[in-house]
Amino acid sequence: MTDTSEVGTYRRLFHDKFAEIEQLLADLPPDAMTWKPFERSPWQGDAGSLGWLIAHAVSSTVYLLKRAEWTMGRIEWSGVQGDQGKEEFTAANQDPANMLARARAALGYVEQMLDSLTPADLEASRPHVKRPELVFTARFDIQHAIEHMSQHIGHAQLTRQLWALTAAA
């Protein structure tokens, strides 16, 4: 039976997004991880490599969920960071197998975090430590993590398609 609760819906969406990352990485050679469709564009500047897009999707998801944990009072502000701190795309992440392991570890964190939520946790809000006019809410950060992850997976899917066209040529 499908869990239609709010947290159950979040769980299903995260599982879908991490499955898309697995699909992106399937049968991908390491050189594809650093491939970019172009270097610079007159609109929005530099292109991200395929690997960076995937790494950012994973890192930003962890960052936003950590921010939700901070909002709920579970961790200190210093603990609000991505799964690899400020380093999202290191040389180790240029290996698709390593990136897949990293994504699976992040999904484990997501599962653990979602398992721990109570209805009261979802209602938590807290002002930013340096900008009190900016108020974070746990529910928003969880939803934003899904939205942000989806956006970068979409970028990565298009980039993988473009890479496949050049690799086949």
Describe the protein.
The protein is mainly α and 169 residues long. It has helices at 6-25, 30-33, 50-71, 96-115, 119-122, 138-168; strands at 40-41, 45-46, 83-86, 125-127, 135-137. The chain has a single domain, classed as dinb family like domain (Four Helix Bundle (Hemerythrin (Met), subunit A), Up-down Bundle).
Layout of strands and helices, then pairs:
Layout: H1 6-25, H2 30-33, E1 40-41, E2 45-46, H3 50-71, E3 83-86, H4 96-115, H5 119-122, E4 125-127, E5 135-137, H6 138-168
Antiparallel strand pairs: 1-2, 4-5
What's the tally of helices?
A: 6
Which of globular, elongated, flat, extended, rod-shaped describes the shape? globular
Binned strand content: 5-15%
Strand order of the largest sheet: 1-2
CATH class label:
Mainly Alpha
Structural class assignment: mainly alpha
Features:
169 residues, Four Helix Bundle (Hemerythrin (Met), subunit A), two-stranded antiparallel ribbon, 5 strands
Summarize the structure.
The chain is mainly α.
